[in-house]
Amino acid sequence: MYKVENAKKKKLFEEIHLHLLEDQRPSEYLSTILLEPLFSEYPFSMIKNLTKAEQSPVHHPEGNAWKHTLLVVDEAARRRKDSKEGEVFMWAALLHDIGKPVTTRVRKGKITSYDHDRVGAKMSKEFLSFFSCEENFIEKVSALVRYHMHILYIVKDLSFGNIKDMKENTDVNELALLGLCDRLGRLKPDREIEEENIKLFLNKVQNRR
């Protein structure tokens, strides 16, 4: 039974992979599998739990982390051709907030998800390792998940950022592309401002060691 279940899960993983790489709007397929029983089982449940992660209505008027992720994935699909490694990029887009369900709290009346980037990096490794993905692929996806919040940290000069580690562990241009999709994956984003913020991020990174 264990082998049969894993075979079914492997097939679903491969289907998700195909839609991430080929669809113009992967969100349409992802929405159809949301209610499939298999998607509620481990490790897919790590993704489905995004539906339970509420977000600040100020920063995320689109709603929970699942709705945000669908918008990010579609934005990433529109920019797939700009990525050097489309498979890594698209899986990072899908998994970038996987750590939110376990880190989301209401603090002083505000919804927060502190350290979801760090937690998400570990969870993305766990998720992809279940399917015996190549180690190099897992590490690259995990690194993009780990550092995706650095766009905000560096643009706003926050102390949480570690430029040295970020540059050692990621392709900064790939991270910037993911960060742009993350920022645009919201309701009615100001595209001009977000694109300027990405330029500012790259400029600051290039001018620091």
Automatic annotation (TrEMBL):
Domain HD/PDEase: residue ranges: 61-196
UniProt key word Hydrolase: yes
Organism: Anaerocolumna cellulosilytica
SMART domains linked to this entry: HDc
Highest taxon, organism lineage: Bacteria
Protein name as it appears in the record: Phosphohydrolase
Record lineage: Bacteria, Bacillati, Bacillota, Clostridia, Lachnospirales
GO molecular function term, any single one: nucleotide binding
A Pfam family: HD
Alphabetized Gene3D superfamilies for the sequence: cca-adding enzyme, domain 2
Key word Hydrolase present: yes
SUPFAM superfamilies, alphabetized: HD-domain/PDEase-like
Keyword field: Hydrolase, Nucleotide-binding
CDD domains named in the record: HDc
Membrane-traversing stretches: none
